[in-house]
Amino acid sequence: MEIVNPRAAGIDVGSRSHFVAVGQGADQVREFGVYESDLRELTRWLLSCHITTVAMESTGTYWQNLFTALQQAGLEVLLCNGKFTKNIKGRKTDVQDCQWIQRLHSLGLLSGSFLPDQATEELRTYCRHRSSLLETAAITTQKMHKYLRLLNLRLDVVVRDVTGQTGMTIIEAVCQGETDPERLACFRHGNCRKSKEEIAQALHGNGRRDLLFALSQELDMYKTLQQKIVACDAAIEQLLREQIGADEQRRELRAEPKPYKRVNKNAPQQMDLNQLAYQYYGGVDLLRIEGVSHATVMALMSEVGAEGIRKFPTAKQFTNWLKLCPNTKVSGGRVLSSHTPKGSNRLKIALRNAANVIGNLRETHLSDFFKRVAFRKGRQAAVSATARKLAVIIWHMLTYRVPYNPPTQYLFLDEKRKLKLVQRIRKNIAKLDLRPEDVGFATA
């Protein structure tokens, strides 16, 4: 095969050492450590060999420091998915791996993975850390449920959310030593559906000390996690305002308020994400799409960024990267399979969650599409199809800077009645072949 990249190198990334190949000879392979001095020595060796482009596998998080060092040295770095660099079956060593990567790259058979810019990477770190805190808080809540149940305090039966105002106040009182069910029921919030008598009936506990100790520990952990989530939200808001403040035009944009969009309790509470997202995307209002929530927009901002979506020339390539389009395999003119490929990134999960919400809506353009697919192929297929449609809509909105304009707008009840009346009148006029003069209408 023809050599496409004559000055190409291949790196097999490891946790304790990196194997680098600049050719297929035994003397053209070297091993380097992972310290900063080793990375500088690796870069100097590649430059001395007149290497201009380097390919490496995306192995865990071990590649990131090496990737940054090579980019700062002016080398073109290609980060490849591990499934594209697999060697044929047989004896496998680190030396053979780096030589195989170098051979594939020199022949032009490797394609790079999508990587966001530095600003988006910072935002992604904050958002992923926030998601990790939310997952830990959810585990802590489940443990609180467990210890309350073992204490025979069936708060989960009479209160919808034990981490709400009523639930948290009662749990704090229990951890402080309060055992009287009537006094505990007095902490009921006015919005709670259950009466004080029903709540008091569910709070006759057994008073075990070991379980009370474990419950108090989990309560302290939950409060600490909530404080860290608030601090993480403040850091995200500060970073977004810094990025928006650098552009005067984006700073002056004002988004339309959306009181009908519910703010989930896990969504950022302190910042106006509607306004920040509108400014971040330069006047493109993604929250006007039905089913798209604050969590969906935050996932898009942190995983792709403001200009990262332009790295995908077409909407098909964007949906292919998200693994939302069918992976059709044809042999001999016959379709072998057309299943959606396995694998999920955070943005795909967010779009599928939004599609699942759209399936519960009524009389919208996307919900009608969801129900048509669900009628033929089931709800799971409809979720994937609607998530792909959402991705295509978002790509067009961000690429061409156009507002969301569905073919059928949502109509309120009075508007529906008026539309039906107009349609019935037009039908009768066409049926009777009436002219404006026949009914006494004056025409210009």
Polypeptide structure, described:
A hairpin with a 5-residue loop joins strand 1 and strand 2. By secondary structure, this protein is α/β, with parallel strands linked by helices. It is globular. The mean pLDDT is 90. The chain folds into 4 domains: 8-106, Nucleotidyltransferase, domain 5 (2-Layer Sandwich); 119-241, Orthogonal Bundle (Helix Hairpins), CATH 1.10.287; 260-400, no CATH class; 412-444, no CATH class. It has helices spanning 36-48, 63-72, 94-106, 118-150, 155-158, 165-175, 181-185, 196-201, 209-245, 248-251, 273-280, 294-303, 315-321, 346-358, 365-377, 379-400, 413-432, and strands at residues 8-12, 18-21, 29-32, 53-57, 76-80, 329-331, 334-337.
Question: Which characteristics define this entry?
Answer:
444 residues, alpha/beta, Nucleotidyltransferase, domain 5, Helix Hairpins, 4 domains, five-stranded mixed beta sheet, two-stranded antiparallel ribbon, 7 strands
Q: How are the SSEs placed, and which strands pair?
A:
Layout lengths: L7 E5 L5 E4 L7 E4 L3 H13 L4 E5 L5 H10 L3 E5 L13 H13 L11 H33 L4 H4 L6 H11 L5 H5 L10 H6 L7 H37 L2 H4 L21 H8 L13 H10 L11 H7 L7 E3 L2 E4 L8 H13 L6 H13 L1 H22 L12 H20 L12
Parallel strand pairs: 1-4, 4-5
Antiparallel strand pairs: 1-2, 2-3, 6-7
Cα shape: globular
Mean pLDDT: 90
What does the largest sheet look like?
5 strands, mixed
Quaternary structure annotation: single chain
Counting DSSP H or I runs of 4 or more residues, the number of helices is 17
Distance between the termini: 76 Å
Query: In percent, how helical is the residue content?
Result: 40-55%
Q: Could you say how many structural domains there are in total?
A: 4
